[in-house]
Amino acid sequence: MLKTVAATALALSAVLTAPAANAVADVPDFVTIDVVTVNGSGCPAGTAAVAAADDRTAFTVTYSQYLAQAGQGSGPTDFRKNCQLNIKVSYPQGFTFGIAQADYRGFAHLQQGATGTEKGSYYFQGMSQGSSRTHNFSGPKSDNWQATDRAQVSEIVYAPCGEVRNLNINTELRVNAGTASKANSFMTMDSTDSSVSTKYQFSWKRC
Fold this sequence. Notes:
Residues 1-20 form the signal peptide. The structure is a single chain. 0% of the residues lie in helices and 55% in strands. The protein is mostly beta strands. The strands form two sheets. Strands 1, 4, 5, 6, 8, 11, 13 and 14 form an eight-stranded antiparallel sheet that branches. Strands 2-3-7-12-9-10 form a six-stranded antiparallel sheet, with no helix packed on it. It is elongated, with a radius of gyration of 18 Å.
């Protein structure tokens, strides 16, 4: 199930199927994922898409124009790109959820002396408590990169039981040219031959 996400208030709805016989324990019978808004310099309208997993434990975001660059040929604001997703997750009463793990992939071309950063932040609307993870990369590097944000059970922030709270996920790429300002360095969350997916894994629990 894959639908292009537009940067409007129109919701993208991914309604999941009934549970299979070997479904994961303590997972709701149905889950609906609505992407309410998507905003940011790394995800212009029509360049991000969402697919929900049939087992109701994950969803994937795919980007096609998420690129940060610095050094020769770059503009003054190109060094930082971000994308914020505002997601409504609907499910039966008696359950709540949090983000247990997020897997990011992309491509990095960093000159000697240049650095790159990927950051993911997660919080529920109206709640001060949240979590974030940062991953740093150093040049020289011209290869695919991968980063995983994994929370311990005690660290997972869950939505309040019995309340509807949208989940906000904000990702960021930064590139610092460092001593390689006369050359171009960049990081992407996409690739030249196919889009790169970012996978978010739910942690469900009963209230």
